[in-house]
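Minutes, project huddle
Topic: does the predicted pose make sense with zinc ion bound?
PN asked that the exact inputs be recorded in the minutes so nobody has to dig through chat later. Recorded below.
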Amino acid sequence: MKWQDRRGSSNVRMSGGKVVGGGIGGIIIGLILWLVFDVNPMTAMQTGQSITAGGGGNTTQPIDENDRDAQFASVVLADTEAVWGQIFQEDGRVYEEPQMRLFNGTVNSACGSATAATGPFYCPADRTVYLDTSFFQEMRQNLGISGDIQGSGDAQNQGKAGDFAQAYVIAHEVGHHVQTLLGISQKVNQARQRLSTAQGNQLSVRQELQADCFAGVWTNRNQQRVQFLEEGDIQEAINAAGQIGDDRLAKASGRAVVPDNFTHGTSQQRVEWFTRGLKSGKIEACDTFS
Ligand SMILES: [Zn+2]
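Predicted holo structure (tokens), as shared on screen:
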């Protein structure tokens, strides 16, 4: 997948344990410590930075321009903003862009706290896509990318394979944002309250399949816009659609996946709906509910 020469989104923030520097605030606090308390300047700067950086998952900062995975996620998010902005505009609507939060360890969202084990998710309450930084590594491993490519230090090859699969997962989460903007998620939640658990879960599966279809629509439209696909990319996403989904995520988070929850052939359905969106490039092709 080609992505290196495109702009990134301004809606991405980084948070969590891996805090690099405390910015201007840290320097100012450091200066005060140094001037007022006569602390060693280097110690003062470090203390100032750790005070402003904090230890919890609620402080955020812009993404590091040398962090390849973060830059990649930022470009994919910008691509989704461009495509969905256009689709909404064609429909006489205004697309409200989601936020993206990259975290390491744990994070507090408006939908509750999450860890890396939760996997990528979208929280409608704060309209934010959450990605833990181990996700990128995990995707590369799951897709069978050999360690020597990753460890070769060759910037051209490093992490290159599997990137479209990562983009697909991000596009799926953005698909949930689109469902929220279109009022689909709210309708599903209301209907679920009237239905049995099994029927409600069936509805959730349809919601998931629609997010896959929306990821396909995005792929189609982004290809028309910037010709970003390379040989093998679609197969990569199809593999990911079968391997990475909310059923797998449910397992990872310790929630039991029972056959009632997810009908047999979910992987196959995922691939089918992604392909429908991909071929048509239209959200009308994504009516998974009727
Ligand atoms: Zn989902």
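Observations noted during the meeting:
- The radius of gyration is 21 Å.
- The longest helix spans residues 197-226.
No decisions taken; revisit at the next huddle.
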